[in-house]
Amino acid sequence: MASDSKPEGSMLWGGRFTAQAASTPLMIKYNESLFFDRILYKQDILGSIAFARANGKSGIITQEGLEKIREGLLEEDIHTANERRLGEIIGKNIAGKRHTGRNELRKIDDHLVNFLKVIAARAENEIEYIMPGYTHLQRAQPVRWSHWMLSYGLAFAADLDRLRETIKRVNRSPLGCGALAGNPFNIDRDMMAEELGFEGLLWNSMGGVADRDFVSEFLQWGSMYMQHISRWAEDLIATILPSLALSVFLMPQKKNADSLELLRGKAGRAFGHMLVS
Predict the structure, then answer these.
(1) Among 45, 72, 95, where does a domain finish?
(2) Residue 200 falls within a domain, yes or no?
(3) Where are the alpha helices (DSSP H) in the chain?
(4) Higher-scoring residue by pLDDT: 241, 43
(5) Lowest mean pLDDT among 69-78, 254-263, 267-276
(6) Which structural domain range is residue 64 located in?
(7) Distance CA 47, CA 244 (A)
(8) Which residues make Cβ contacts (< 8 Å) with residue 249, sequence separation at least 6?
(9) What residues contact 234, with CB distance under 8 A and at least 6 apart?
């Protein structure tokens, strides 16, 4: 006969899983995703507020209830409320170190635009500078510094275009799709999408729930971008300034481009994420 004991705390996926193998400490730990989900806490709370507001509009909850939900989710501010709750779950010392997940795609766009402005300005102001051009890591022909700079400027400009195209395709809201067959409560999906900053909807509920194209598309974009970063870093390794290099005690004559080598290593990591997505 099944035991009436439950997993510690109130599990959102309770019910028939109670007292089954899925409720053992080992399986709870295996199935939990807090390590990843905590990065998305801000988006999760804002999504909950938008959904509550849509429920208020359709009459499922009262305006008073909506306001209480909103106040509860925004207690003092999102960061304070979530910090406190996360501290209750995993401990204050660990919770205080959690990431806030603010690196949105549009911030990458802004950084790339600023980077391209710097490249263009440097190329224009330093057009008379001459440097050796390399092939096969060997000096080949003299080239203008500005020519070398703009070779990467064009690559990163293409990355910026691809990023904007990716954002346009993937910035579609699945909220309101339900688990599979949509939402029968006349939820205003357009209102929720607009409130959360989406540019449109995923119209088919089954496709919206199952869709992971946005993950693959971003990883593909990121891999291309990191390929350009890696190539740029390789060029700089050959000419790194001593002030930017590191050495070792046993070989003080060396100038190791650790920071640039780390960039190339991180590029390989991005390629790996894309392949397993």
Answers:
(1) 95
(2) no
(3) 25-31, 34-37, 41-57, 63-73, 78-90, 92-95, 105-125, 145-170, 189-195, 205-210, 213-237, 258-276
(4) 43
(5) 69-78
(6) 15-95
(7) 44
(8) none
(9) 260, 264
